[in-house]
Amino acid sequence: MLRLASSSASLADGTTLFIGGSWQAANDTYQRFDPAHLERSTGTFASATPEHVASAYEAASAAQPAWSSTPAPQRAEILRRAADLLEARVDEAARRLTSDMGKAIRDARAEVLRSVAILRYFSGELLQPAGEIYPSADPNTMLLTVEEPLGVVCAITPWNFPFAIPTWKLAPALGFGNAVVWKPAEWASGSAVFLTEILAAAGLPDGVLNLVTGKGSRLSSSLTGDPRLAALTFTGSGEVGVRLRQAVADRNVKVQLELGGKNPAVVLADADLEDASVQVVRGAMLCTGQRCTATSRVYVERSVAPRFRELLRQQVERLVVGDPFDEATDVGPLASPEQRDTVASYLQIARDEQLEVITGGTIDGPGSCFVTPTVLAGARSDSRLMREEIFGPVLVVEEVDDFDAALEAANDTEFGLSSAVFTKDIAKAMAFVRRTQSGVVHINRETAGVEPHVPFGGLKASSSMNREQGKAARLFFTTTKTVYLRST
C-alpha cells in the first residue's frame, strides 16, 4: 500500500505524474495560483508529454488482467477504505480545493463529502447482482448473462468540481474492474494529486490508476489515439467533447460525454415566490455560478414578475462575497483570471445591448478574480447571454405571458441538461416534466444538485446518451456476455 505523501511536498517539486504506482516528474512544469490571492502559488505541476501518456496506458494495460479478475468484494473494500481516508481528511481536502478553485469553503467541504458518499455508494453497488438468469426454450440449457470490465478507461475531468466529478467517474470505472488513465483539468491539478493519493493509499494495485497532469491540447491525440483505449468518459465544453468523440468514432471505443447546459427555471404565478427566489439564487450564484447545472435563465409569469424580481434582488444582495476561506462567505472568486475575462466579456455584451441591471454587474480589475453576482433583464432571445453558457454568477430574468410561453422559451436552446419549475399546480408540474427538454428536472428546487444513486445526463447538445452515476454507471463501465449452459 502506498503511504500518503505530504501534498505540499509533492506539489512543490512538480512530481505530480502517477504512473505504474510511482510519482514522477517531467522536464516541463507549470504553476497554478490561488484565485483569491493571485500572488500566491498553489503548486508546481509536471507537464506530461505524449510519452508519459503512452507509459500510463502501458501501465494500465499491464495491470488490467489482474485487476479485472479481482473479486468485486475486494474492489468494493478498496473504495470503502478510500471513502474513510477522504472523510478523515475532509478539512484538508476542502482547503486544497478552495486553494485550487476559490470555491467557498462551505461548498468545498460539501463537495468533498459528496465524493465520500459517491465512494461509499459504489462500494455497495459492487455487491449487487452482476448478471441475470433467463428462461430457455431448451429444458437442458441454463441461460444467463455475466458482466465484465471494458478494459482501459480514459477519464478527462473539468476544473469546477475537482473532487466530485472525478470521483463519480473513477469510483465506478475502477470498481467495476477497469484500469484508468486520468487527465484532470490543469486548474484542478492540486486536487487531482490529493485524490490520487487517497485512492492509492486505499490499496489500489500499481498501474490500476494513472494520473497525467498538463495541458489537454498537448495530450489530446495521445489520450484518444492509444490502441489500448476501451472507453472514454469526459466532462467539459461541447467543442472539446465533439472533437474527442470524433477522434474515436472509427474505433470500438465506448464514449460518455457531459457537455454543459443553459439551464432554465420557470416561475409560475401560483408559486411560493419567496422560496422560489431562494432556490433560484442558490442555483445561479453558489459555486460562483461555475456549475454545468447552474440556473442561467428565469422565465416568470408577467403578473408576478415585479415582485419576483425584487425578491431576487434582495436575495442576491444578501450573499456574502469575499475570502473563500471564511466560513461566512457564500460566493468566492471565479476560478482563474481567464474565467474572469470570460465573464467580463458577457457583462460587456449586457452593457452593449443596454440590458437592465437589477443588481450587480461589476467585476474587479485585472489583479482580481472576483465578480459581483449579477441579475439582468431585457435580453432578446437571440442574445449570447441567453444562448451561451457563461459559467459565472450571472442570471437573466424574462417575463412571459403564461405557462406555455415559458415552456417554449425554456426549451429554446441547444442544451438540455437541467430545468426547474416552481408551482403549486401538480398538473402543470407534471406537464413540465413531460414537455421540458432536459435530462434532469426539478420541481420547486434549484436546477443544480445531483445525488449519486440516480442517473445523471442531458439531452440535445448537453451530453451523449450514456448516463453517469447510479446503475447507469454499471451499464457504461461494463460489457455483458450471454451464456448458454447446456447440461449433457
TrEMBL record:
Ranges where the Aldehyde dehydrogenase domain occurs: 24-483
Official protein name in the record: Aldehyde dehydrogenase (NAD+)
Transmembrane intervals: none
Keywords: Oxidoreductase
Active site: E258
Keyword Oxidoreductase: yes
Origin superkingdom: Bacteria
PANTHER family: ALDEHYDE DEHYDROGENASE-RELATED
Stored SUPFAM superfamilies: ALDH-like (SSF53720)
InterPro entries named in the record: Ald_DH/histidinol_DH, Ald_DH_C, Ald_DH_CS_GLU, Ald_DH_N, Aldehyde_DH_dom
Family: Belongs to the aldehyde dehydrogenase family.
Pfam families: Aldedh (PF00171)
Record has ATP-binding as a keyword: no
Any GO molecular function: oxidoreductase activity, acting on the aldehyde or oxo group of donors, NAD or NADP as acceptor
